[in-house]
Structure formats: C-alpha cells, structure tokens
Amino acid sequence: MRKIFFIIQQKSALSLVDWDNLINEQDPEMILVLISEQGSIDSLGTQAKKSFTAIIELEQFEFVQAKQEMDKIFAQYYQMGDQSNIATLHEFQLELVAQLRDHYREAFNIQGPGIDVIQNFRNKLLMKKHLGPKGVKLPNYTEFDSEAYKHNPEAYLQSIEQLLGFPMFAKPVDSAGSLNTAFIQDTEALRAWSNKASESSHVYEIDEYIDGILFHCDSVVQNGQVQFTLVSQYLHPNADALSGKALATMTLNPGAEDYKRLKQFAEEALSHFPILPDGVTHLEVFKKTSNNELVFLEVAARAPGGVAPEMYQIRTGVDIRQLHLRLHLGLSIEDPIKQLHDQSKWGPFASMYQLVAPYHGGTISKLKPPVFHGGGYKIEWRCRENDIIKPASSIANVIVSTVFWNDDYDALEQDFRLLDQQQIVEIIPTQVYLLQEHFNRLETLGCTSTSYPPTFFSKRNLAIGAASMFSQISAQAANTLGPNSSVTTEVDPVMFLGLLVSSVAILVLIVYALYKVSPTPKDVNKDEEYLVPAQSFL
Q: Where are the transmembrane segments (predicted)?
C-alpha cells in the first residue's frame, strides 16, 4: 500500500526541516508533495528537492488554490487503497490543513484531525471552555464584546475592570507569535485599545495579567495518548520580546521539582480535550510569583516555534519537527520515542534565544557575537551591519537566533539569566518613526490632555508634521541632486533656494516642538516607565 503525503509549509520555515532524513528506507513507498509559496523551490537545497515527488507553489495559502493543485496530484498518482494525509508545522496553516482533510477524507482515505478538532487548539476561548469545568486553573478572562462597548462604552469598560483589574492583557483568540497583542495598564489605555478593537475584524479575549514565570510543555502524542513531555522555561513572556527583551527559553532538568509538576499539569490538561490529535503539542503555563500556583495560558497542536526544536535536539538527540510530521503522516516513531525515554543518551543542557526587531525600526550599526561561560553555541544572523530593518509586528520578525549548551546546568542558567545584558545587536532608531511612536504610546497609556499641558499635543503634532515634511523635502532634494551631491539635472535656482529655506525652517520647528514640550516631572516618570529606550535592544 502506497502513501500520498502533502506537506503545506510557508517558505520561511522550509530551511528549518531536515527533509533528507524525514523519510527512511524502512518507510513504505510514498509520494511526497510540498505545497508552499512562490519562490519556495529556490529556498530548498538540491538534495532537499529530491525528497519530493512534486513541489507546488501557491500565490497564497487558501482553500480553493490548494484544492485545485491537490486534485491534480490525486488524479495523477492516486490508486485504489492508497493512504493519504496532509501535515503542516505552521500555526496559521493548521485550519487550512484540517479543512482539506475534511474535504478529501472519504474519497482518498485521508487520516488526521479535522477542523472541529483543530479549532480546540486554535481558538483560545474554546480551549479554556474545555479545561475550566475540569478544574484546570485558568486566568480570569472575557471575550471582548464590540457591540456592548459601542452601546455603552463606559459601563462596559467598568465591567471589564471589575472582572479583571489592572493591568490586563488582550489578544486575538486565534493568533500566535504575540501578533496584535496589547498590555493594558489603566482605564484610558483600555478605552484607547477598545476603540480600535471594536472596529477590527478580529475576535479578542482579555485576560487578567499574571505575574509569574512562563513555561512551555511540549508533548508527543500518538493514538490520543501522551508518549513523552519536555519542559522548558521562558526568560520572559513572549510578548515582551516586542519591547526589546530577549525571546529565550531553557530546558529544565528532568529531576527538578518544577519539571515533574509542570509535566503532570500539562498532561492532565491535554487529557481533558475530547480528541487529542497525533503530533507534538505546545502548551504554555504560568507559575505565579505570589503563591507558585500553575495557571494555564494556551495550547497549540504543533511543535514549538523559533529554534526551540534545535534546542531540544541538542538536549535529547530527537528532532521534534520531524517527529511531528512523521506522526501526522502515519509513519513509525519507535526509535525517537526510545531515545526520549533513555536519558543516558541525552546530550548537554540547552537553551535558545532570539532577538526581535525593535518596535521603532532602525539601522543595524554593529553586530557582536555573544559571550558564554563554557559550553558551545551556534548563531544565525538574519541581518547585516548597515541593514535597515522595519519595526516588528510579531515575535516572528527575528534578526538573530542562537542556540547554546553546557554540561554544567548552573553555568548554562547563569548565561540564560544574563541574556538581556548581552550587547549582540546595536541599532540606531528610525527617528521619525520613533518620534511618532513616542507620542502614540503616550496617548495609548492614557497620557492625554488631561495629564499634560494643553499645548503639549499641539506641539506633538507640529513635531511629527515637521519631521514628516522634512523627510519629504529631503527626498525631493535627493531626486534633484545626484550621488555625492553632484548635479545631474538642471536645477531651478528659485526651487533649490525654496527647498533650502524650507528645510532650515522645518528643522527649527522640530527643535522648538521637542524642547518646548514640558510635561510635569510625574508625567515624565510615567513616560519613562513604559517607553523602551534604544539601548534596551542592544
């Protein structure tokens, strides 16, 4: 019996998978098809391309396009009795893959979870509804009701404040990578966020803010049963990476009390889902600072992102990305499961960290390799000196990744704790963007005209407008003058003089607007507490 396997994966993640060793000689005859984005073929190595019977490039990941291409593959290769399946490693393709499974299930003997199962691991409200009644500790939370907010904004905001208290944390119910999340500190910030969220197409939940340490528990599931669970600790909650902190995690010692307790918590939580899909699950849980209580955050039906799988491979010798794919494709995982259970064959303790592009964007001025206390490391620079980088929209916008390891757990933990002090990347902020972002954040944090002098925000607008005009004038001048300021076209003296005078005037306005702003000392402190200075990204 042959197998026809489809792997749907974004181009950016193709290089993360060891395609050469995904299939081995003991596996049955198969037809392996990769469905990815345009340009994906060029991102694969020569040997990796040979792993696939066909590589299909889509203009965009959506059901109709994928179905059209899969119909062609089935028409060309499918024979009666063949077994088929579809897999992905990417959070945002889980629902597409589930829909395709449901569509083809009866006609082509497709295995694997459908959309009803996957939604329990995509929708944060649904997963909480399964776990709360079973006694799993959850944060206080609510679904944001746009209509209730529009009907009576003040009453609705008051009800949220009474339920959750400040601070609180808002996020889409079906997103990942800290995309479109918000830390909300007070009523003014909640009002500003609600104004935007009420006009959004996203469905949001708002959770109470949990002060504690965040862990992730990554479990291997086969035939609905957990076969093994790995536990790691984040240095900071993931969303903090968007404000300059290291996105880092470290494997825990299996003999540690936290490891045993978290493993039990995760496996119990997973047992409460009606159907537990085969593959690797990624569950996040807080340990509260106040009383060490464990609080469920969320779970995904996929392997962890970033370079966490590389960290686990150094520690255990098992590639959990491959493990996840092989489980979805119905292939044997006997050898890696044996490896996971035999800790005598494990490698050194391991950690990983990534730096995310800062919210202000900027120019990379210097790259400096990290320094660790013994052990080893490997690093991937995703930027070069003098590169201009855009502000990050999610924690997927990584500019450098590092995996490091050490046989000495205490030495590794010391390096892990000091990651924020490592000066790996120096960035010169984009000034106009930073100026705009500065004032936007003040407004979001409730620093409105009620707490600042009436002239403050008019001067803000003047500064931003002046900076914008200066940028446009500079661009016009650049178009008028050639490289190295040599004149390449005939220049109208009157126009050139106008540009020069305008530039000087705009610069004067910028200086005036910036240095005449005079919030009270109390407000300055409030500003400094929440605005991340450039050096925090170094």
A: 494-515
Residue extents of the structural domains in the chain: 3-112, 140-208, 212-429, 431-537
The alpha-helical segments, DSSP class H, found in 138-186 are 146-151, 153-164
What are 312's two structure tokens? 């686990």
pTM, two decimals, is 0.79
May I ask the CATH architecture of the domain 3-112? Answer: 3-Layer(aba) Sandwich (3.40)
Main-chain phi, psi angles of 56, to 5 degrees: -115, 130
β-strands 54-58, 83-87 pairing: unpaired
Q: Which of 149, 141, 137 is nearest to 123 (CA)?
A: 141
Among 432, 337, 449, 347, smallest CA distance to 388 is for: 432
On whether the CB atoms of residues 118 and 95 are closer than 8 A, the answer is yes
User: How much of the chain, in percent, has pLDDT values that exceed 90?
Assistant: 55
H-assigned helices in 201-297 = 257-271
Q: Strand 83-87 to strand 3-8: parallel, antiparallel, or no bridges (unpaired)?
A: parallel
| Alpha-carbon distance values, 32 to 8, 58, 85, 87, 108 (Å) | 11, 17, 10, 11, 15
Residues 389, 307, 255, CA angle at the centre, nearest 5°? 140
Write the Ramachandran bin of 400: left for phi over 0, alpha for psi from -120 to 50, otherwise beta. Answer: beta
Mutual angle of helices 455-480 and 431-444, in 10-degree steps = 160
Question: Other C-beta atoms within 10 Å of 160: how many?
Answer: 22
Which residue has 């066909």 as its token pair? 54
Does domain 140-208 match CATH 3.30.360.10?
A: no
More confident residue, 98 or 513: 98
Q: What is the C-alpha separation between 223 and 235, in angstroms, rounded?
A: 33
CA distance 525 to 520: 9
Nearest Cα residue to 425 out of 405, 403, 404, 398: 398
Residue found under tokens 């699950």? 281
Query: What are residue 117's phi and psi, to 5 degrees?
Result: -75, -45
The predicted pLDDT at position 226 comes to 98
Per-residue confidence band for 505, with pLDDT thresholds at 50, 70 and 90: low
> Comparing 99-103, 314-318, 421-425, 515-519, which segment has the lowest mean pLDDT?
515-519
- Phi and psi for 480 in degrees, rounded to 5? -80, -40
Written as six digits, the tokens of 351 are 């950690």
Query: What region, left, alpha or beta, does residue 366 occupy, with left being phi > 0 and alpha being psi -120 to 50 degrees?
Result: beta
Encoded amino acid at 270, one letter:
L
**How far, in Å, CA of 215 to CA of 284, rounded?**
6
CATH 3.30.470.20 fits 212-429, yes or no: yes
For residue 123, give Cα distances in angstroms to 28, 127, 403, 418: 35, 6, 31, 35
CA 35 – CA 275 distance, rounded (Å): 27
Distance CA(291)–CA(84), nearest Å, equals 49
Question: How far, in Å, CA of 454 to CA of 214, rounded?
Answer: 42
Q: Are 358 and 333 in contact (CB under 8 A)?
A: no
Distance CA 149, CA 130 (A): 27
Residue 177 CB coordination number (10 Å): 21
**Structure tokens given for 25:** 């000689």
